[in-house]
Design a protein that fits this description.
103 residues; four-stranded mixed beta sheet; 2 helices; 4 strands; elongated
């Protein structure tokens, strides 16, 4: 599956199949949440949350690709990600784009 954040495939004609998306809601366990809260006092990267968000983006992307494959697509164009806080220490990540078939 070709994943692009542009709305075309250079030199190719594509048939648009429709929007596809994948999402997940992730959180860290309380121990890491407490340690991360302490880290905010001294500054720096909060590794536990970075890892959580990396994992969430990967899962959302995988689910988006699965939906595109079900539509018979071989490319997802104009991919975007959005994130929202659901509650303290939990976030939803959505990956979405346009499924298409290269002609």
């Amino acid at each position: 599956m070709l994943l692009l954040n542009v709305d075309y495939v250079a030199g190719k004609e594509v048939e648009m199949l429709g929007m596809v998306r994948g999402s997940t809601v992730r959180s860290k366990h309380m121990g890491k949440d407490i340690l991360s809260g302490l880290k905010t006092m001294v500054g720096g990267e909060i590794t536990a949350y970075k890892e959580m968000m990396d994992e969430a983006r990967a899962i959302a992307t995988k689910r988006m690709v699965e939906e595109a494959e079900a539509k018979g697509a071989d490319v997802v164009l104009n991919i975007r990600y959005t994130t929202s806080a659901i509650m303290q220490g939990a976030a939803e990540v959505i990956a979405y784009g346009t499924a298409a078939k290269i002609k």
